[in-house]
Design goal:
By secondary structure, the chain is an all-alpha fold. The chain is built from 6 helices and 2 strands, in the order αβαβαααα. Helix content is 57%, strand content 2%. It starts with 15 loop residues before the first helix and ends in a 13-residue tail after the last helix.
Length: 193
C-alpha cells in the first residue's frame, strides 16, 4: 500500500468536520506547532510553505460520535467567543491593560480559527470600572474557558479533536498563569496631600 499523500500547508485549512473526522493533516511546523508554541501566527503557521504532513485518522467514528463532538466543539467555541468579547471590552475600557491582554485576544483568535471559526459572542456584562476588578473578571472567565476546554478534551470522541483541544487548554492555562503575575498600580482616590 503506498504511503498517504502529503498536503502542503496551503492545502491545510482545518474545518470543524475535518477535525471531527480525524482527517486533520498538519505540517511539522503547522497548526500543532502554532498551538503548542504559544499560538504565534508567525513562522510555521499554515501557509508558511511547510510540506511535511501527517494524519491522525479516527477509527470507526460513528455518526452519533461525530454529532456529539460537533455539539462539544460548538459549546467550546461559544464559551471562547464570549470570553474573547470580555477581553476586548476590558481592553477598550482599561487602556492600561490593553497590552497585557493583547496576547490573550490573539490566542483566542488563533484558537478559534484552528477550531473552525468563532461564532458571534453571547452578551457579556460590562467590565468592572476598577482595573484590578476587571482583570479579575478576565481571569475568572479564562479559568471557566480552561475548564470547558479541558472537559471537552476528556469528552471528545475524536483523537484529533482531543489533541487540538488539549493544546488549546495548555495555551490558555499558561495565559491564566501569566495573568496571575500581573500587578496593577494601586488606585488612588481623593486629592493629593
Amino acid at each position: 500500500m503506498p504511503p498517504p499523500p502529503t498536503a502542503s500547508a496551503e492545502d491545510v485549512r482545518p474545518t470543524r468536520r475535518g477535525l471531527l473526522l480525524g482527517g486533520l493533516r498538519i505540517g511539522a511546523g503547522g497548526l500543532a506547532g502554532v498551538l503548542l508554541a504559544g499560538c504565534s501566527d508567525g513562522a510555521g503557521a499554515p501557509g508558511s510553505g511547510s510540506t511535511t504532513g501527517s494524519t491522525s485518522p479516527a477509527v470507526g467514528t460513528t455518526e452519533p460520535a461525530k454529532a456529539a463532538d460537533e455539539d462539544l466543539l460548538a459549546s467550546v467555541l461559544r464559551q471562547m467567543a464570549t470570553t474573547r468579547a470580555l477581553v476586548g471590552a476590558v481592553r477598550r475600557r482599561h487602556r492600561d491593560l490593553s497590552a497585557t491582554l493583547a496576547p490573550l485576544g490573539s490566542a483566542h483568535a488563533t484558537h478559534g480559527r484552528a477550531l473552525g471559526g468563532l461564532p458571534a459572542a453571547d452578551r457579556t456584562s460590562p467590565p468592572a470600572r476598577d482595573g484590578a476588578a476587571a482583570l479579575a473578571q478576565v481571569v475568572t472567565a479564562e479559568q471557566r474557558l480552561v475548564d470547558e476546554v479541558s472537559g471537552a478534551v476528556v469528552a471528545a470522541r475524536s483523537g484529533a479533536l482531543a489533541a487540538v483541544l488539549a493544546s488549546v487548554a495548555a495555551s490558555l492555562t499558561q495565559h491564566v498563569a501569566a495573568l496571575a503575575e500581573v500587578s496593577l498600580p494601586p488606585v488612588t482616590t481623593g486629592t493629593a496631600p
